[in-house]
Amino acid sequence: MTKEKFLDIKLHMERHAGIWSVISAVAKLVTALTFVGYPLLIGFLIYLSFTGEGFRKTVVCIVVPAISFVLLSVYRKIKNSPRPYEVWKVDPLIKKETKGNSFPSRHVFSIFVIGMTFMFTNTGIGAAMLLGGVYLALYRVIGGVHFVKDVVAGAFFGMAAGLVMFVLI
Q1: Most buried residue, 10, 67, 152, 158, by CB count within 10 Å?
Q2: Cα 7 from chain centroid?
Q3: What is the 3-state secondary structure (H, E, C) of 3-29?
């Protein structure tokens, strides 16, 4: 997205604040459901491992996302890419004051790796989370806090970590 395109979108959203409020509320709901859902999934997997099923699966579904998240965070800190609002010298639609650490998007990575984790137990919920991840990626780009490359990379790394889980289980 270019600065001009972002400013066009921003102007439209400011003129139609109700639309942006709904878009933001849905993004917050998607985020909340994902981050409540993951501990519930892990609790369910732990329960199954106590019944003799899937101890390895439980460990993989905890360890791979955790290690991937840490590695992604370290890489992001080292790379320290500026955010669109820093580069373009504009106020983002999503209120944020963070400097740098834009590439890759950790929000998008997280929802994609959690969605992939859900694919092991419930493909419907997993697919819904991945769709939610696409929504969240679009929201963060339109909101001016990430470039397209940031969210695409976050999604890619989240799905790659998910594929590692598939191989290990």
Answers
A1: 158
A2: 24
A3: HHHHHHHHHHHHHCHHHHHHHHHHHHH
Give the integer Cα–Cα distance in Å for 161 and 106.
13
Record the tokens describing residue 148, joined without a space: 């397209």
Separation of alpha carbons 54 and 60, rounded Å: 10
Asked if 129 and 162 count as a contact pair (C-beta separation under 8 A), the reply is no
pLDDT-based confidence at residue 21 (cuts at 50, 70, 90): very high
The pLDDT confidence band at residue 83, using thresholds 50, 70 and 90, is very high
Task: Give every CB contact of residue 47 below 8 A, 6+ residues apart in sequence.
Answer: none
pTM score over 0.90: yes
Contacts of 92 (CB under 8 A, 6+ apart): 83, 84, 85, 143, 144, 145
Phi, psi at 65, each rounded to 5°: -60, -40
Q: How many CB atoms lie within 10 A of CB 83?
A: 21
Strands (E), the chain: none
Q: Where are the domains of the chain?
A: 3-168
CA–CA distance, 49 with 70 (Å, rounded to integer): 25
